[in-house]
Amino acid sequence: MKRRLGIVGSFAVAGLVALVFAMVGRVTAQDWRTASQEPVGLAPVAATTPEPIVQVYAARVRGIRGVFGVHTWIAVKPTAATEYTVYEIIGWRLRWQDTALVVRHRAPDARWFGSEPELVAEKRGAGVEELIARIDKAAHAYPWAAEYTMWPGPNSNTFTAWVLRAVPELEADLPPTAIGKDYSGAKLIGSAPSGKGFQFSLFGLLGLTGSSVEGLEFNLLGLTFGLNPFDPAIKLPLVGRVGPARTFDTQVPEARLDEAKAGPLAEEPAL
């Protein structure tokens, strides 16, 4: 029995090593100076789409870090706007600025230094203008804009999760490779990154998340393992989400719209 377990363990380790090397080859194939930043066609053309839109994206980061993690961002287009505004944290900006928060007009579905983005969430139409206003408020209230730590956070995924907690109507399930999404500073218990359910997190290094959006996730040293029965998928470190293609309800639930209209325009994220 011990011999069999040893053989199985050896194969598992060999498979993991092979996977890592395969992913290293994939994410380091392009020089960052020449890597494509072209859009991939996941975002409606702003100039010909009058309705308001919010989209959340994730893409593998550059270099060896891309084996383990992704960079995430939020893009918005108000009613009749002819371009998108993207909110994201870019850590290297701190080398010459006092904030890593970047708010700019750019293609929302642009490749991230060669990596093709994945659409994580999308909302359009009625009620989205209110969401856009709350996204802007939450983004500018992000408490770690002057800090950046690749692991376990705060980083770009910590920022995206902060904003999503303030706007749970987006129902965004960040990928398990969004390392840093579970970082919440000294607060141990709060809502899940989607703003739904609950999360226990010890500085992003150990945690448990349960919600109707994320399903059940376990975080160990920033690596996420999970199962989502609501949008069927298995969640694994390195690999990411394994399951059928995502499906989105692009409309804001009316119940949430009524709550937003009855209360303040935006509340502080539950962190």
Strand order of the largest sheet: 6-7-8-9-10-11-12
Give the rounded overall mean pLDDT: 86
Which shape, going by the Cα principal axes?
globular
Fraction of residues in helix: 10-25%
Low-confidence regions:
2-29, 262-271
Count of individual helical segments: 4
Q: What is the succession of H and E elements?
A: HEEEEEHHEEEEEEEH
Radius of gyration: 19 Å
What share of the residues does DSSP label as strand, in percent? Answer: 15-25%
Note the gap between the termini: 47 Å
Q: How many beta-strand runs?
A: 12
Instruction: Return the structural class.
Output: alpha+beta
User: Quick one: biggest sheet?
Assistant: 7 strands, antiparallel
Descriptive notes:
With about 270 residues, the chain is an alpha+beta fold. The protein is built from four helices and twelve strands, in the order αβββββααβββββββα. It has helices at about 1-25, 130-140, 155-165, 255-260; strands spanning about 55-60, 70-75, 85-90, 100-105, 120-125, 190, 200, 205-210, 215-220, 225-230, 235, 240. The strands form two sheets. The protein has a seven-stranded antiparallel sheet, with no helix packed on it. It has a five-stranded antiparallel sheet with strand order 4-3-2-1-5. β8 and β9 form a beta hairpin. α2 (about 130-140) crosses α3 (about 155-165). It is globular.
List keywords for this structure.
single chain, 271 residues, alpha+beta, seven-stranded antiparallel sheet, five-stranded antiparallel sheet, 22% helix, disordered C terminus
